[in-house]
Design brief:
Strand content of chain C: 5-15%
Number of helices of chain B: 17
Chains: A mainly alpha, B mainly alpha, C mainly alpha
Distance between the termini of chain C: 68 Å
Strand content of chain B: under 5%
Helix content of chain C: 40-55%
Helix content of chain B: over 70%
Strand order of the largest sheet of chain C: 1-2
Distance between the termini of chain B: 40 Å
Number of strands of chain B: 0
Largest sheet of chain B: none
Oligomer: heterotrimer
Radius of gyration of chain B: 22 Å
Largest interface: B-C, 86 and 83 residues
Structural class of chain C: mainly alpha
């Protein structure tokens, strides 16, 4: 890996996870406040996360296996906030009712 | 109040004291980079760094123990079995820490024989404490386990949280036995050493703090036991599911077989996934309670825990965990940046949160709030983020110049360390370190006085 | 069993932890064979009698130690027992002086001083041969380790840790042996950059 490639790859990998986190954060706030605009923002953030994933696949010298993992992780990152949300609601339901 | 809870207060006080020593030793370690002649010939970098890291381990451990001694009697509805022994051992533990620190500072090192390892310094990172003291740690942990398991046995009351805790205490104790050997073969030595360091920090400690957070949430937000236990199990499954083989990312370069590159990279790439779930969970809790709580500092430190863990462990970790990047990033200030952020987020914030909860009960406060905790919260967190940001810049420069361009030789090391990016990063780190230290002072002042001084909000209102 | 039921997740936690632990134990058994002296990744201690180099391996795609020909340390070949004694002593020096709290070994330790993984192969010893007035790399290393304060070449200096001649020789043997460990290419390009210049 070239020295520039090293820094580019690392920064992209960091931004990749940070954007996934921002998406999860905004998604959850959107659900709590029932705010459609925030929900759209969360999708924009996920879109940016997806673009970062594409940039990692297209531009970094990472091996193909790691690139596959990046794509698979993106799918997982997309699903985690809604799944966690649903599970949270289900587990808290008896408490809310009771 | 139970005697166990009085013991908890002692442990938490000791933890906060050692947190201060850690901060001072950290500032010293940072200052050596700026002025290498500092205390040269008197006290060298390695001793300051040992004090910094070892007090970090001990204050967090004492914080966990304090938190558990606090919550357990309420959980069991009775005094802990063997509490007298635990009380005596607290003084032995704290005294031993002081003796070890004095020996590190005064004697520093010995000859290359077993005597040095038994009485002065074992010279293995994180577990430098001489063997006699390490035996002391084993005894303390064994009595701690006896307190927990013995009380559970006597009362016959085993909740989900205490069951998880009891199971966790076994590896916590067994893995620490790895603090003793002096294996000549460095590859084998580091292989086992990582069992201790990684499986303690990224497995058994995660479970400990998970149990503590479960009790905290029940107290702070009134969440039901059924819910916190469900989530504790989920956390154990996910964190250990990714963390146990995540151990592999420490085996990339120590001489271990190359399949660890794949296994370690894969499992540590999974590690951010549960951390995202934790962020969602924290925001959910904050939202459903409309950020309203009777203990704002505890609540904010709990939030800092979730976000710090995601950023420090997740984002910072993922930047450097894939083998192709790690080949250059490993063992540079980049690692230091990640380490600071992850420890802070995963553990320190959680312990501070519990301490505020304990203070609320201790002083029977209906509302814990004020201005000072905000200052300390801001200074500690900004100081920490500033430090890790600066360290990251230095680490990038080091990886770039020393590792990728220079090929990691002695001259390349000097070239990297002399680069303006590196040097300025180190100066900035020190400045933010001072901010962190100021935050620590404000924290101690707040912990000593909160609830005792006139309510700040009322005073502010009167002034207007 | 249902996802709302804590028992569902308890079962999940127990099975995940068990499976992962079993896999870890199996991999550990395999790894221990590879990293014991004479295993696939870690050389016998008698490697200190040989010439060691570090070259890029096209097949593996990373740098690898290359061991060939005789090059006894301090000009005197040692048998297996003597080599082991030297390595044992060297490790004791490393631990008693807590070298790892300034330096790194295989990148593990503190970051105040250079990584020692391939220190034996460092081109800088050529300079130290001149500074210390010695003829061989190992003699230069011994002199430096015994009196690092005398041969200070940079603002950050190694303190004098009262290392004796015997301890310094054991330490040099240790560093030589360690440079022959297959570290999956860490550090990359070691020493080649200077050669190119």
């Amino acid at each position: 890996m070239s020295e520039i490639g090293l820094l580019q790859s690392a920064l992209l990998l960091g931004v990749y996870v940070a954007l996934a986190g921002s998406y999860g954060l905004v998604y959850t706030i959107a659900r709590i406040q029932d705010a459609i605009s925030l929900y759209r923002l969360s999708l924009v953030l996920y879109g940016l996360h997806g673009l970062t994933a594409i940039a990692i696949v297209a531009w970094t010298p990472l091996h193909i296996g790691w690139k596959g993992l990046i794509v698979a992780s993106s799918a997982a990152f997309l699903a985690i906030p809604p799944i966690t949300w649903r599970l949270l609601q289900r587990t808290h339901e008896p408490e809310v009712r009771g | 109040m139970y005697r166990s809870q009085k013991l908890a207060l002692k442990y938490l006080t000791a933890a906060i004291t050692l947190f201060g020593i850690m901060t001072v030793a950290g500032l010293m370690s940072a200052y050596y980079y700026i002025n290498p002649d500092f205390l040269f010939g008197i006290l060298h970098f390695n001793i300051a760094k040992i004090l910094h890291i070892d007090t970090m381990i001990i204050w967090l451990l004492m914080g966990f123990m304090g938190a558990i001694y606090w919550f357990l009697p309420e959980e069991f509805g009775r005094e802990l079995v063997g509490i007298k022994l635990a009380e005596i051992l607290f003084y032995v533990f704290f005294g031993a820490v002081v003796v070890v620190a004095v020996v590190f500072i005064v004697v520093q090192y010995g000859n290359s024989d077993e005597t040095a390892l038994w009485f002065i310094n074992q010279g293995r990172k994180y577990v430098e404490a001489p063997r006699w003291a390490a035996i002391g740690v084993v005894v303390v942990m064994a009595v701690f386990a006896y307190n927990v398991i013995g009380t559970a046995y006597v009362t016959g009351k085993v909740s989900g949280i205490t069951a998880v805790l009891m199971v966790d205490l076994v590896p916590l104790l067994v893995l620490y036995l790895d603090a003793f050997p002096a294996i000549s073969n460095m590859s084998a030595d580091l292989f086992w050493w990582w069992w201790l360091v990684h499986l303690w920090v990224e497995a058994t400690w995660e479970v400990l703090i998970g149990c503590i957070m479960a009790w905290s949430l029940m107290q702070l937000l009134g969440t039901s036991r059924r819910i916190v236990e469900t989530w504790l199990y989920i956390e154990v499954a996910l964190v250990l599911g990714t963390g146990i083989l995540g151990l592999g990312h420490h085996y990339f370069w120590i001489g271990a077989p190359s399949y660890w590159l794949t296994i370690g990279g894969l499992f540590s790439a999974f590690e951010p996934l549960p951390l995202l779930g934790m962020v969602v969970h924290a925001v959910y809790d904050a939202g459903t309670h409309h950020m309203k709580t009777t203990n704002r500092p505890a609540f904010y430190w709990l939030m800092a825990e979730a976000f710090g863990n995601f950023l420090g462990g997740g984002v910072w970790g993922f930047m450097m965990t894939l083998p192709q990047v790690n080949l250059y990033a490993h063992g540079t200030q980049w690692t230091v940046s990640h380490g600071h952020f992850a420890f802070w987020g995963a553990y320190a914030c959680g312990v501070l949160s519990v301490i505020y909860l304990v203070i609320q009960k201790l002083r029977s406060l209906t509302q814990v709030d004020g201005a000072l905790w905000k200052w300390s919260f801001a200074a500690l967190n900004l100081g920490l983020v500033g430090m890790v940001g600066a360290l990251l810049v230095s680490g990038f420069a080091q990886a770039f110049i020393e590792r990728a361009i220079g090929g990691s030789t002695h001259d390349a090391f000097i070239a990297g360390q002399s680069s303006p990016w590196f040097v300025e990063g180190m100066v900035t780190r020190f400045i933010f370190g001072l901010m962190f230290a100021a935050g620590y002072v404000a924290l101690v002042w707040d912990l000593l006085t909160i609830g005792k001084r006139a309510p700040v909000l009322a005073t502010a209102g009167a002034a207007e | 069993m249902h996802v709302d039921d804590p028992a569902f997740w308890r079962a999940g936690a127990i099975s995940t932890v068990s499976i992962m632990s079993v896999v870890l134990v199996m991999l550990t058994i395999d790894s221990l064979a590879a990293i014991s002296p004479g295993g696939s990744n870690v050389p016998l201690y008698t490697v200190i009698n040989q010439h060691i180099d570090y070259k890029f391996d096209d097949k593996r795609g990373n740098d690898m130690p290359v061991i060939r020909g005789a090059e006894p340390l301090f000009g005197k070949a040692v048998d297996a027992a003597a080599a082991e004694a030297l390595i044992d002593k060297g490790k004791m020096v490393i631990q008693s002086r807590s070298c790892i709290d300034c330096h790194t070994f295989f990148g593990n330790g503190a970051y105040y001083a250079p990584d020692l993984t391939k220190a034996w192969l460092d081109p800088a010893w050529e300079t130290w041969k001149i500074i210390t007035g010695t003829k061989t790399r190992e003699d230069a290393m011994v002199k430096f380790l015994m009196h690092p304060d005398k041969y200070r070449i940079w603002t950050r200096a190694m303190p004098n840790l009262d290392i004796t001649q015997q301890e310094a020789e054991a330490l040099v043997a240790y560093l030589k042996w360690m440079s022959a460990v297959d570290t999956n290419g860490f550090p990359a390009n070691f020493g080649r950059m200077q050669q190119k210049q």
